[in-house]
């Protein structure tokens, strides 16, 4: 493990703080996952890219990280303030499909986008609909402890029972008067304006497709309870880092803290990591505004997904980032020049073979503070620590990229430079190893036939609702360098 301190901005303390894991030394990391009613837009994906960099930074310096992410496939209403139609139901109506068909399609689409952007799939990904018993158990605990109440046949969290409900945000109760916020409408069942729903049995729409039996009647969970329970299920009652976009701070993350700590009886999460918005010239990118950009829409305009990742890494995660195609064109040119510069390196073939560099998979020498064979050890270790230090300074990706360029200009041999490029790319994940790969050979008929056969088997597995088998086929193809893309027209594939 590298001898350095990782510091990140903690929204809870409103300052950059040293990251100190819980007693076991491992880091439990929770990511708020997508609501899978539509494609993720590139503003959503900026958050996941920066969370990916945080996780990979922690692994880079030597921490053991377990990352968990939820998939919201029920309970997230059109407003974060528990009002409006369920987003999943709205997606099902839009496409004339069942809610679960919509959930499966857009979960696959999100995973495809993550793969295109080299976002590591979390260790655990759990759909909310898998965890109904856990939701009911926590809600009952909150009722038993007096932190919740039943009114109008719904179950609500009673925020008046907390001394510091707004500990994470700058909100206050006066700001929550009806009409002061777009996402707050009057609910006559609430005792206090800030109270929120834990379980719905009665709502303003009758046609909710997904419902489960509970002690309070046939219904479905509120959005906020989902993350608390999924985190507890896989990471226990003590969490190191919770991630999300700045728009999650209130009310979602504020409500997570309220219900989790009231249920557990102790502090729950030590560090809160929030990524700022991606804006356009007209404001924040959002699905509700229409015309949002996706990874696929960038590809249709001939932009490599790595160019968008590079675009995000050149700005600090806590600053708003303004998107324009002119800016993306500049980054695209810079990325092409960077890869070309790396491709001119002439590293030792023998060293590359010893690193087991297999083109698509990357080098097999990944251990913090240990130089691979065939490099200038002192130079390698100095630059490794320099790069890690940039990232350990509140995930300063711009400074880390500067370190990459400085390595390419450094007075050392090409083998050492190549090793450092590959090492840095474990975090940057810009597919810089493409510079060392031979030109791609044409796909032979035998491979094409095999892939199409596996896609057909996967389709049959999904039709039979054997999603474990479908995922296994996808993972098997991915291991062979084949990326699948699920579209409305069917499944396509390409070599990674």
Strand content: 15-25%
Question: In percent, how helical is the residue content?
Answer: 40-55%
Number of strands: 18
Largest sheet: 5 strands, parallel
The gist of it:
This protein has 496 residues and is an alpha/beta fold. Helices cover 41% and strands 16% of the residues. The protein has a 5-stranded parallel beta sheet with strand order 7-4-3-12-13, sandwiched between helices. The chain has a 4-stranded antiparallel beta sheet with strand order 8-9-10-11.
Write the layout of secondary structure elements.
Layout: E1 7-10, E2 15-18, E3 27-31, H1 42-61, E4 65-71, E5 77-79, E6 83-86, H2 87-95, H3 99-116, E7 124-127, H4 132-144, E8 148-151, E9 154-157, E10 196-200, E11 220-221, H5 223-235, E12 239-245, H6 249-264, E13 269-275, E14 278-280, E15 283-284, H7 295-300, H8 305-313, E16 321-322, H9 325-343, H10 349-354, H11 377-392, H12 397-409, H13 414-428, H14 445-463, H15 467-479, E17 482-487, E18 490-495
Parallel strand pairs: 3-4, 3-12, 4-7, 12-13, 14-16
Antiparallel strand pairs: 1-2, 5-6, 8-9, 9-10, 10-11, 14-15, 17-18
Helix pairs in contact: 1-8, 2-3, 4-5, 4-6, 5-6, 8-9, 11-12, 11-13, 12-13, 14-15
Structural overview:
By secondary structure, this protein is of the alpha/beta class. Helix content is 41%, strand content 16%. The protein is built from 15 helices and 18 strands. α2 packs across α3 and α5 crosses α6. The longest helix is centred in the first third of the chain and has 20 residues. About 2% of the residues have low confidence.
């Amino acid at each position: 493990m590298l001898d350095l301190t990782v510091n990140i901005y903690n929204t809870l303390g409103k300052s950059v703080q040293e990251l100190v894991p819980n007693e076991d030394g491992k880091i439990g990391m929770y990511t708020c996952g997508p609501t899978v009613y539509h494609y993720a837009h590139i503003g959503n994906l900026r958050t996941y890219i920066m969370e990916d960099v945080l996780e990979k930074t922690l692994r880079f310096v030597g921490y053991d990280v377990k990352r968990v992410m939820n998939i919201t496939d029920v309970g997230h209403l059109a407003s974060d303030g528990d009002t409006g139609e369920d987003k999943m139901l709205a997606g099902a109506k839009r496409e004339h499909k069942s809610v679960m068909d919509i959930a499966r399609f857009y979960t696959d689409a999100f995973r495809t986008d993550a793969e295109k952007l080299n976002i590591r799939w979390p260790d655990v990904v759990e759909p909310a609909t898998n965890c109904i018993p856990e939701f009911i158990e926590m809600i009952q605990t909150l009722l038993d402890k007096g932190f919740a109440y039943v009114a109008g046949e719904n179950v609500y969290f009673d925020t008046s029972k907390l001394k510091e409900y707004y500990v994470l945000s700058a909100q206050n109760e006066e700001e929550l008067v009806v009409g002061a916020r777009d996402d707050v409408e009057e609910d006559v069942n609430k005792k206090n304006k800030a109270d929120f729903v834990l379980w719905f049995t009665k709502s303003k729409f009758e046609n909710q497709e997904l419902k489960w039996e509970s002690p309070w009647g046939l219904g479905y969970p509120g959005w906020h309870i989902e993350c608390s329970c999924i985190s507890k299920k896989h990471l226990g009652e003590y969490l190191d880092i919770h991630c999300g976009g700045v728009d999650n701070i209130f009310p979602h993350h504020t409500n997570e803290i309220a219900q989790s700590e009231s249920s557990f009886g102790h502090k729950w999460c030590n560090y809160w990591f929030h990524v700022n918005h991606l804006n356009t010239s007209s404001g924040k990118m959002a699905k509700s505004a229409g015309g949002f950009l996706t990874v696929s829409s960038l590809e249709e305009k001939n932009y490599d997904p790595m160019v968008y990742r590079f675009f995000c890494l050149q700005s600090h995660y806590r600053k708003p980032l303004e998107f324009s195609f002119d800016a993306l064109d500049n980054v695209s040119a810079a990325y092409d020049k960077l890869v070309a510069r790396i491709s001119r390196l002439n590293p030792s073939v023998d060293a590359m073979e010893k690193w087991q560099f297999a083109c698509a998979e990357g080098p097999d020498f990944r251990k913090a503070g240990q130089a691979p064979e065939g490099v200038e050890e002192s130079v390698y270790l100095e630059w490794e620590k320099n790069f890690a230090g940039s990232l350990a300074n509140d995930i300063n990706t711009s400074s880390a990229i500067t370190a990459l360029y400085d390595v390419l200009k450094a007075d050392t041999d090409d083998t050492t430079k190549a090793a450092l490029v590959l090492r840095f790319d474990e975090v940057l994940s810009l597919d810089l190893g493409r510079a060392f790969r031979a030109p791609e050979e044409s796909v032979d008929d035998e491979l094409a036939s095999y892939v199409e056969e596996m896609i057909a088997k996967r389709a049959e597995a999904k039709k039979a609702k054997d999603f474990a088998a479908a995922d296994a086929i996808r993972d098997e193809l991915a291991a062979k360098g084949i990326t699948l893309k699920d579209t409305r027209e069917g499944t396509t594939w390409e070599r990674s």
